[in-house]
Amino acid sequence: MGDWWQRNIMEPGKLPLLLALGAFVLTFVITRVITRLIRAGKGPFGNVKAGGVHIHHVVPGIVLTVVGGFGAVAGGRHGFGSALAAVVFGVGAGLVLDEFALILHLDDVYWTEAGRQSVEVVAVTAALVGLLLAGFTPFGVDGMSEDELQGRANVIATVAGNFFFSLLALAKGKARLAIFGVIVPLVALIGAVRLARPDSLWARRFYGRRPRARARARLRAYHHDRRWSGPRRAFQDWIGGRPDPDRR
């Protein structure tokens, strides 16, 4: 265990990333618990106001993110300062992305359908950082054998190929597959070879004169959304709370 920790966490300089991820996830969980208690009118918590203005937690989040980011740049990759900056950055990022939908819409949509975007962004961010930690960095490890060096070179080539397939997946309107595909090769390949979504850039460019391809794309998108929208909404509700009903 000690050798694995040294070679995969300490030597590649991943400890700050691990600390930032832990602070990010913990901050998001605590924030959601507190906001749900405020919404239910339970506990000692309440909205923060100054001069009649509701101070959203994205405000201290931005401050902490800036402080942590500049602290990390100034402190380098090692030492207590780097670890502290990583924790501060993770806390700030958790507060900011918990209100990602508010920033995107420039409106207080925290407990609306649009507010689900915050939960989705946080989940994707945590998953991506977790994948980076679970894998290994092809740079920065000393004392490798010839076989290990060859393996690292193969990884670099694979990452370049994955990036190409991820761009194809993104052009086909499969943003989640494109993001995860940068790290997981099979995901990028799946997104690149499957039919594009009907509203994607790829569909507008290559399906314009192919009515059968357009029809297949619409049918596949309909079945996919019908199958997965329910479980995805249930997952988001479990993490972030059920949105208020639309009264319009």
Automatic annotation (TrEMBL):
Q: Which UniProt keywords apply?
A: Membrane, Transmembrane, Transmembrane helix
Asked if the record carries the keyword tRNA-binding, the reply is no
- Which superkingdom, per the lineage? Bacteria
Q: What are the transmembrane regions?
A: 15-35, 55-76, 83-106, 121-141, 153-171, 177-196
This chain belongs to the protein called Integral membrane protein
